[in-house]
Amino acid sequence: MKISSNCYAVTGLYYLPPWTLNAGFIVGKNKTLVIDSGSNKLSAQTIYGYARAVRPENEILLVNTEKHLDHIGGNRYFYEKKAEILGHKAIQRTQNEFLKSVRFINDSLFHPVRKNLNEGFYAFEKTEIMNPIHLIDKNIEIDLGNFSAQIILTPGHTDSNLCVYHQDDKVLYSGDMILSQFVPNLEEGGQKEWKAWLTSLEKIKSLDIEIVVTGHGEVILGKADIEKEIGRIEKILFKAIQDDKAPTVM
User: Fold this and answer.
1) In terms of CB atoms within 10 Å, which of 102, 143, 163, 173 comes out highest?
2) In whole angstroms, how far apart are CA 66 and each of 5, 73, 91, 135?
């Protein structure tokens, strides 16, 4: 869906329940910057198709907001379409890690017959992990022809997280640094990572933002709701730091 003059969101893409995924793209005069490729080839086809349809003559670039497989699963499809793929230098995943995640998804199926038939694997057929080619280790700007998009390093959820900001449209693609409604996933980190997350949220709060395309959940519209969601995540992080335990750990 179109969310501003130059920015689009692709929401509700497939992943492990209760999660759905969001991606998006920013359309410039000469280049279109896609943010995240989804969890599988099917999602990548959808994202790429929408991005190509808006301005067919544009060169397409892809940037991954983090290293988790739900954000990079469609990278190879974009590579086959000759897209330049960018991401943090810490994104170094393997096909074996991907297959382990797919097995976990299949094992999570409620229906025993479908689980035994391995139907959880079907959505990931012809999906092969590919890491970014152009590695990012600092804040950069990407020229899209008539304006630039800012890539801002925001570690915390992982050491590879980054956000994409279109200043003119006041749109932020936050990846999993900001979620709508969901409890953020803190399980892979500890005190150091949670404190880094809080620092990154302060960085985000310093930007002039009116729309946030989250990694999961609803697109957040308006400064008041953005502030509310960031505040909710901050409270969860402060509690985790105080208790020295992620909120989803039993």
Assistant:
1) 173
2) 26, 11, 7, 12
